[in-house]
Design brief:
Radius of gyration: 15 Å
Shape: globular
Number of domains: 1
Structural class: alpha/beta
Number of strands: 10
Order of helices and strands: EEEHEHHEEEEEHEH
Distance between the termini: 33 Å
Strand content: 15-25%
Oligomer: single chain
Number of helices: 5
Strand order of the largest sheet: 3-1-4-5
Largest sheet: 4 strands, parallel
C-alpha cells in the first residue's frame, strides 16, 4: 500500500493508499522540500502524491474564484510539484465513486460540495492515516523527529492556522499513533508536537 501525500481536507478518502495529510498536498507550503526529504528519510520508499477537487488552500493561494479553475490548476501544479520533489504523481481525486489512479492509489471526495464538516485536527504520528474520519482534518507528523524543529513548527502551525480559519471555530486536537513506523517513532513525533504546545487538551 503506497504512502500518498494528499490534502488533509476531511473530504479526501483513499480506498487504496495511506494518506500523509498536508494542506493543499504541499502546494506552496513553505519548507515543503525539506518536509519531503524528511518523509523519504522516515519511510525509505517511493512516496506518491495526489491532487483533489475543491481545494480551499489552492483556491486561496492562486486567488481563483471558480472550482473548475481550481481543480484544473491543482492537478497541473501537483504534477509539477511531483516532478520537482521526486514524488510519483497518482492523479486527481474527484467527487465521484472511488476512482483508480496511478501507482496503486484509489480514492475520491466524500464530503458535501462546498461544505466543511470537520471539528477536529488529527495528527498522524506512526505511519499515515489508519482510519478515515469525516470529522477530521489530517496533518502528517511522521517526519517531525528527523526535521529541523524550527521548520517543523512553521509547517505544522501554518496548517493548523489555515484549518482553524476554514472551520470558523476552534478545532479539537487528536493523535493517531498506530502505523508501521511503530510506537517508538510515534512517541518521538508526539513529543515534538507537544514541544510546540500542541496537546490533546488544546483547541
Amino acid at each position: 500500500m503506497p504512502y500518498v501525500i494528499a490534502c488533509g481536507d476531511e473530504g479526501v478518502q483513499l480506498n487504496q493508499g495511506t494518506r500523509l495529510g498536508f494542506v493543499g498536498a504541499g502546494f506552496r507550503l513553505e519548507h515543503f522540500t525539506e518536509v519531503v526529504q524528511a518523509l523519504k528519510k522516515t519511510f525509505n520508499e517511493d512516496i506518491v502524491i495526489a491532487s483533489n477537487d475543491e481545494n480551499d488552500w489552492v483556491k486561496k493561494s492562486l486567488d481563483l474564484q471558480e472550482w473548475d479553475q481550481v481543480n484544473a490548476s491543482m492537478q497541473q501544479h501537483i504534477e509539477a510539484l511531483a516532478d520537482r520533489e521526486g514524488l510519483l504523481f497518482a492523479g486527481h481525486l474527484p467527487f465521484t465513486d472511488p476512482k483508480p489512479l496511478k501507482h496503486g492509489v484509489k480514492g475520491h471526495m466524500v464530503r458535501p460540495h462546498g461544505v466543511h464538516v470537520a471539528n477536529k485536527i488529527c495528527f498522524t504520528l506512526g505511519g499515515g492515516e489508519q482510519k478515515y474520519n469525516l470529522g477530521c482534518y489530517v496533518i502528517s507528523a511522521e517526519w517531525l523527529a528527523v526535521a529541523d524543529p524550527k521548520i517543523a513548527k512553521e509547517v505544522i502551525q501554518s496548517q493548523v492556522d489555515f484549518y482553524t480559519v476554514l472551520a470558523k471555530k476552534p478545532l479539537q486536537i487528536v493523535f493517531e499513533e498506530k502505523g508501521l513506523l511503530g510506537e517508538e517513532v510515534a512517541a518521538k513525533n508526539r513529543a515534538v508536537l507537544e514541544s510546540f504546545g500542541i496537546t490533546l487538551a488544546a483547541a
